[in-house]
TrEMBL record:
One of its GO terms (cellular component) is membrane. It is a multi-pass membrane protein. Keywords: Membrane, Repeat, Transmembrane, Transmembrane helix. It is found in: Membrane. Residues 134-147, 156-321 have a biased composition (Basic and acidic residues). InterPro entries: C2_dom (IPR000008), C2_domain_sf (IPR035892), C2B_MCTP_PRT_plant (IPR047257), C2C_MCTP_PRT_plant (IPR047258), C2D_MCTP_PRT_plant (IPR047255), MCTP_C (IPR013583), QUIRKY-like (IPR047259). This is C2 domain-containing protein. Residues 134-321 are annotated as: Disordered. Belongs to the MCTP family. The keyword Repeat applies. The chain crosses the membrane at residues 918-948, 1033-1062. It holds the Pfam family C2.
Length: 1090
């Protein structure tokens, strides 16, 4: 098993607090992890000390490392006085990166107490790695090799340490052996001979160890003699040192022998006492036990040697603090890791570089080639012309322009961009060819560019002007002629030509380019059906049931049956709402129908209204109404069938809801005249993704063509598609204007299936994951760089599809304007003057989502239906038992403080903590006699709690939480039900089981609702005389209380009631109170329900 090691590198401190009274400090850092502490050296009288020391800790439980924390305490080292605290830094285990991703970070020193004065920063590097265990055999051989004479003096102290540790190990192991032997002797009586054999074997082992030590000393002496011939002067000094060491070793050996003899004597005394108690023996078991003991002893010896070597190595590693060998293999992320990670990418505006518009992404170098046109090309076809095209080759990438048929002066005007990382050669080759279908293409010329001589262009520099280049020939390709106009430069993704260029990592397809989309401008169409006149009805002997049906594309709305009883002039005055999008090139079909029989309607007449003629309004003013003639369908020239009175208008004062309420990105009304001034700018840098999973197969292997889609307000952005990469890097930056801070930015990652669609047909883009960021949780002007986990719910459960790296910044134009926005209504005022019902809002939202998906799917390149629906979360209103449980746990977590307060109050009433109960009594009396302090105390308490929680505020944006979504503990059947279609496509047996489960859940809810209704009905029964005796008792009690309150002051009454409520348990009965017993006996309406 691999061992996880945590490395903490303490680099330096900045601007520490002086503590010695002389304007300086002698600082050192103490590192604490899992109860183990290590400290650095003391830097005397430095306020910005530099340590550069590394500490290594072995992680005991790697799975729980995310729940641990590394604490670094900075102290002022004074020998005469108490250590003075200079600050501390706490690093959560979930934010510790693996080796290779570590960065030097400066943490602001935190306080221990509220009144402490702390300042300064501490620069630390923290990371972890997994170390694989090394084989034991080569280590043994390395230890058994004799040491050289020159290094013998350096290795002897280590040998002394090893011997001391071996002694300790022998003492521990001998104690374990004694315990094991006692158990064996109790189970198997009479083992005298076995013990004698063990003693003999131990003596032989000791003799062997002594012989081996003597052999080692003899070898050392032989080597010394050989070297003494060469160096006579050093021989005497070495001998003296050797003699001193030998004397020390002999003394230690004598002490060891004495200790062993004392232990043996003690063992023999114990053994003699045990022998007297064990007289019965069995001769047959002696041989078997003797053999088994011999084998076990051999195993014990081997285990002892290995344990000694391992412990010696661990001791050596603990003593080494600065010299650490890192493993070359870095483990990948845990698949069950759903947490948000902090990153520190090299962004464009963070490392002293020139500030530009692309300061939230990493700078990517590209070689741009603009192919404009050519002239005077050679004739290669029989028709007296050529079919030229240009082919560009740079490293391993190549691309060609479209072919221009029958032209010697072709024009292309195309831009190509090659990433600098794909260049494996020093030359950019531009060749011109003549396309031939029947034979090999003919060569028309070439131009070469040295990459080191290509100029660099950085915006806002002007574009590089193209130049004419003479086409050169290649040996064996024939003569060439003509010129080609090109411009070649090196730039970044901030170049203006980047959006229109063919990029090397996109495969050259138009559908893979980055694109910006705009949602269609949607309006609410209000159709007010007032009345109708001169209708030609059918039968006169029955009461007519006339309704009006309005249809706009797939939206169909119907009025109720007319209110009045006049046959030819029905009256409705009813509003019908539709969703319409610009441009208004559609018609509304108005049909007047009469209900003839159940399920059968007869059309009286119809009319069509063009949306272009409908008036727009921006407030609640009345729009003039109009009369429209009805035509009878199925007749020639449209026979007159009456007329209908309508009022039509586009309501621009509403916000057309096309998103769920909890993830809305815009609250503005449709009419631009009602828009307020923007509050700031939202900038997002889509850096890249990591550890993506394969979504399809290509050439027999897993592959993925990933791209991102970001949506905020009416603006949608789509990055370019990076072909066949599990670690795509986009590095594209986009901006939005912000009109409301309480909105949500949504970013999704998808797999592009356009190539599969062209080959197979009908392939859909696969959703990889989604990230939501609420702008109100972001600090102004701060750049958030994080790696978000991409989580998707599959029928098999929640699955981590990879990570998405984003850089987000919310810039505010005026802080006061943002704070003022929190006091304004969330939606436009028309939503409150003429509110829409909840069913009406849900229906219109589904229609708006469908219209947005249809319009964006008609763009070029299209943004597909499944992508838009996934971004808008169209399935959020579907039934899901998992979401029901998640919402239930959310409610319980909200009510948990109330439950905790009730338990605390019960503890006070039960006097479980007498001191607390007494303090509550005193506080209660103070508040009763000074009631004017209640509200100030409550609000001051809330202020102090909020100020205290500021220290523990979230440092990163919110993200998808698998635990909060209840996606980790959901059963497969519940997930299968969630992914079921509407209507269900499951067999009847499965539907029956799920129906029974839903009935059981509904039965519990029904019981809870019945209990709540019963309690309310008991309250109503107090004065309703349904129980005459109970009502009589209650009104007499009310009269007595009224008289008591009239005589006794209110404060005295409150004090008496409070003291009675908080009385000691000795004066309390375990039975229910009189009031509760009386209330439970009151009648309810539950006994009257069938």
């Amino acid at each position: 098993m691999a061992v996880r090691k945590l490395v903490v590198e303490v680099v330096q401190g900045n601007n520490l607090m002086p503590k010695d009274g002389q304007g300086s400090s002698s600082a050192y850092v103490q590192v604490d992890f899992e109860g183990r502490r290590l400290r650095t050296q003391t830097k005397h009288k430095e306020l910005s000390p530099v340590w550069n020391e590394k500490f290594e800790f072995e992680v005991l439980n790697p799975g729980d490392m995310t729940q641990e924390s590394v604490e670094l305490n900075v102290y002022n080292d004074k020998h005469l006085k108490r250590n003075k605290f200079l600050g501390r830094v706490c690093i959560n285990g979930s934010s510790i990166p693996k080796k290779g991703e570590e960065q030097l970070k400066f943490f602001r020193l935190e306080k221990k107490g509220f009144f402490a004065s702390i300042k300064g920063e501490l620069g630390v590097k923290v990371y972890y790695y997994d170390e694989e265990p090394k084989p034991a055999e080569p280590e043994r051989k390395a230890e058994e090799k004799p040491a050289d004479a020159s290094s013998s003096t350096a290795e002897k102290p280590q040998e002394a340490v090893e011997k001391q540790e071996e002694k300790k190990d022998e003492v521990k192991q001998e104690a374990k052996e004694e315990q094991k032997e006692e158990k064996k002797e109790e189970e198997k009586k009479g083992e005298e001979k076995k013990e004698e054999k063990k003693e003999e074997e131990k003596k032989q082992e000791e003799k062997k160890e002594e012989k081996s030590e003597e052999a080692k000393t003899e070898k050392k002496e032989d080597k010394k003699k050989e070297k003494s011939n060469e160096k006579k002067e050093k021989k005497q000094e070495e001998k003296k040192d050797d003699k001193k060491e030998e004397k020390k070793e002999e003394k230690k050996e004598e002490k060891e022998e004495k200790q062993k003899q004392e232990k043996k004597n003690g063992k023999e005394e114990k053994k003699e006492e045990k022998k007297e108690d064990k007289k019965e023996e069995k001769k047959e078991k002696k041989k078997e036990t003797a053999q088994a003991v011999g084998k076990k002893d051999d195993k014990k010896k081997e285990e002892k040697k290995e344990e000694r070597k391992d412990e010696v190595k661990s001791a050596k590693e603990e003593t080494k603090v600065r010299h650490i060998q890192m493993p070359t293999h870095v483990p990948g992320p845990d698949p069950a890791d759903y947490s948000l990670k902090d990153t520190n990418p090299p962004l464009g505006g963070m490392h002293g570089e020139k500030i530009c518009t692309y300061d939230l992404v990493e700078k990517m170098q590209y070689f741009y080639v603009r192919v404009v046109k050519a002239k005077g090309l050679a004739v290669k076809d029989v028709t007296g012309s050529s079919d030229p095209y240009v082919k560009l080759i740079l490293g391993s990438k190549s691309i060609q322009t479209p072919t221009v048929l029958r032209s010697l002066n072709p024009e292309w005007n195309l831009v190509f961009a090659f990433g600098k990382e794909v260049t494996h050669g020093p030359v950019l080759k531009v060749t011109v060819w003549d396309q031939d279908l029947a034979k090999k293409d003919d060569f028309l010329g070439a131009v070469w560019f040295d990459l080191q001589e290509i100029p660099v262009r950085v915006p806002p520099d002007s574009p590089l002007a193209p130049q004419w280049y003479r086409l050169e020939e290649i040996r064996g390709q024939g003569k060439v002629q003509g010129d080609i106009m090109l411009s070649v430069w090196m730039g970044t993704q901030a170049d203006e030509a980047f959006s229109e260029a063919w990029i090397s990592d996109t495969g050259g397809y138009a559908h893979n380019r980055s694109k910006v989309y705009l949602s269609p401008r949607l309006w609410y169409l209000r159709v007010t059906v007032i009345e109708a006149q001169d209708l030609h009805l059918g039968e006169r002997f029955r009461y007519p049931e006339v309704t009006v049906r309005a249809q706009l594309r797939y939206q169909v709305m119907r009025t109720k049956v007319a209110r009045n009883k006049t046959a030819a002039s029905p009256y409705w005055n009813e509003d019908l709402l539709f969703v319409a999008g610009e441009p208004f090139d559609e018609q509304v079909l108005i049909t007047v129908e009469e209900k003839v029989s159940p399920g059968k309607d007869e059309v009286i007449g119809h009319t069509k209204v063009n949306l272009v003629t409908v008036e727009k309004r921006y407030d609640h003013r009345q729009v003039p109404s109009r009369w429209f003639d009805l035509e009878k369908s199925g007749t020639e020239n449209g026979r007159f069938s009456g007329r209908v009175h309508l009022r039509l208008c586009f309501d621009g004062g509403y916000h057309v809801i096309d998103e769920a309420a909890y993830m809305s990105s815009d609250h503005r009304p449709t009419a631009k005249q009602l828009w307020k001034k923007s509050l700031g700018v939202l900038e997002i840098g889509i850096l890249g993704a990591q550890s993506l999973l394969p979504m399809k197969t290509k050439d027999g292997r897993g592959s993925i063509d990933a791209y991102c889609v970001a949506k905020y307000g009416q603006k949608w952005v789509r990055t370019r598609t990076v072909m066949d990469s599990f670690q795509p890097r986009w590095n594209e930056q986009y901006t939005w204007e912000v009109y409301d801070p309480c909105t949500v930015l949504t970013v999704g990652v998808f797999d592009n299936s356009h190539m599969q669609q062209t080959q197979k047909g009908g392939s859909k883009d696969i959703c990889i994951g989604k990230v939501r960021i609420r702008l109100s949780t972001l600090e102004a002007f701060r750049v958030y760089t994080n790696s978000y986990p991409l989580l998707v719910l599959h029928p098999s459960g929640a699955k981590r599809m990879g990570e998405l790296e984003l850089a987000v910044r919310f810039s505010v134009s005026s802080t006061f304007s943002v704070l003022h926005a929190y006091t304004q209504p969330l939606l436009p005022k028309m939503h409150y003057l003429y509110p829409l019902s909840i069913p009406q809002q849900d229906y219109l939202r589904q229609v708006a989502m469908r219209m947005v998906a249809e319009r964006l799917a008609r763009s070029e390149p299209p943004l597909k239906h499944e992508v838009v629906r996934f971004m808008l979360d169209t399935n959020s209103s579907f039934w899901s038992l998992r979401r029901t449980k998640a919402n239930w746990y959310r409610i319980t977590s909200i009510l948990s403080p109330i439950h905790a307060a009730a338990r605390w109050l019960d503890d006070v009433r039960q006097w479980r903590q007498p001191v607390t109960s007494m303090l509550v009594h005193v506080l209660f009396l103070i508040l009763v006699w000074f009631p004017e302090l209640i509200l100030p105390t409550v609000f001051l308490y809330m202020f102090l709690i909020g100020a205290w929680h500021h220290r523990f505020r979230p440092r990163s944006p919110s993200h998808m939480d698998a635990r909060l979504s209840h996606a980790n503990a959901v059963s497969p059947d519940e997930l299968d039900e969630e992914f079921d279609t509407v209507p269900s496509s499951k067999p009847p047996e499965v539907i029956k089981i799920r129906y029974e489960r839903l009935r059981a859940l509904a039965g519990k809810i029904q019981s809870v609702l019945g209990d709540l209704a019963s309690q309310g009905e008991r309250v109503h029964a107090l004065l309703s005389w349904r129980d005459p005796r109970a009502t009589t008792m209650f009104i007499i009690f009310c009269l007595a209380v009224a008289g008591f309150l009239y005589v006794v002051p209110l404060r005295v009454t409150i004090v008496l009631a409070g003291l009675y409520f908080l009385r000691h348990p000795r004066f309390r009965s375990r039975h229910p109170s009189v009031a509760l017993s009386f209330f439970r006996r009151l009648p309810s309406l539950a006994d009257r329900i069938l």
